[in-house]
Amino acid sequence: MAVPVKLVALVCAIVGTTCGSAAGPAGAGALAVVALAFLAAQGRWRLAAGGAAVVAVLGVLLALIRFAGLRMAVFSEFHVLMFWNLSPVFLTGWALVSTPPGELSSFLSRVGAPTAVILGVLVAFRFFPTMRAAVSATAASMRNRGLAEAGSVARHPLRTCEYVAVPLLLRCVQVADQLAVSATARGADSPGARGSYHVRKLDARGVAWMALWLVAAGAVSIGGALMDGVR
Description:
This protein is an all-alpha fold. It folds into two domains: 133 residues, no CATH class; 85 residues, no CATH class. The chain contains nine helices and no strands. Helix 2 runs antiparallel to helix 3. The radius of gyration is 22 Å and the shape is flat. The relative contact order is 0.17. Its main location: membrane.
């Protein structure tokens, strides 16, 4: 879907979670269901399945805490409720962060954002996926060399940290150089208007989802305000 739809979804999830906190877990659960359906509508089946599994586990833990008196030593009841309430924000936020950089830059250019803002947003949004890939590559390399075994890590913890830190720092330097070259090649310093091959216009389906998110966030917020007034 278009970037404005994802932005509206994220803002509605934040507003609904914040203003509808008095509605209890039911409000956050309703927003989480809408977020999962939103991901499925975009064809993000893997992300939707993973999010559904996490939401289901959190829901079971909440039910056990409330009705069975479950008490956990490490993962407290507060953390379960916090992640449950923030699950709609995490789901919609990840849908926006994982948007292809070309679509983000195209949208920001159309709304007249400064070049510094566009580059900053792109770097910030692509940092975590890039570092995740770098960490996975570093871990695989250490396993191939037998440096990730528990005995080796226990005997040489400082050396293990060095084996992890040095490749990641070098990867950060390489990514910075690649971003600079890519920005220059794409005309980031050009004063004229820039076009993009990645243009995803707002369609009827996107408008429908924006309306659904506004209704869902408004209903949860109003329900929270009513329940807060009753109390």
